[in-house]
What does this fold into?
Amino acid sequence: MNFKSVLILFLGFAFSVKGQMNELKERSNAPVVFELLTGYEGVASQLNINKNFKEVTGLSFFSVSNISSKWNEQNAKDAMSQFNLAYEFVKGFRILAGIHYTPSTGLRPSASVLYSYVSENITLVAGPRIDLSGNSNLEGFGMVEYKPKLNEKWRIYSRLQGLYAQTVKDDHHARSYLMVRAGLSYHDYSFGLGANFDAYGPERIIKNNYGVFASVRLFK
It folds into this structure.
């Protein structure tokens, strides 16, 4: 075997390995997740986006949007969205900078630190966030997802997701919630029973909703 043949084989092997690595990287990129809860009080939705930039290692786009509306509301009054650029400075830890929106606070610059742990059966996300404004809110967020495998197609699906926010200046309760989900997953679909427990403002006005949920993982 001459040098040219060896070079061709080496280049072919290198491109094959690179293709497999790119394919693995794309597969490991988190999907877009859309969830809908239909309950006796109304409808609640959540959209999660967590996408890596292919050309910049450690850099990603991270977004979470929640919208809730009562059955008798023509326009949804309860919304919370954040859009961030995130950089993983240590494995599992990311620093985020972007904007945060609610109807009561409007658009505000935001910064946070987020820890993520992902395994086959468990996903854990937790971290603090603060508004970079004069009348800022400080909040803590946590989410744990447990999805043990039943067989090749089916898994048990469960999730606890919570948030607590308070005003920095007055040290008053601003917003808190707890989301509970329990059901099954089939490939990229999850469904079952769900409940949202919400509290708003210093008076902690309670708005709860119970019903059924369905979610789908898209654009993997």
Observations:
- The two ends are 42 Å apart (CA to CA).
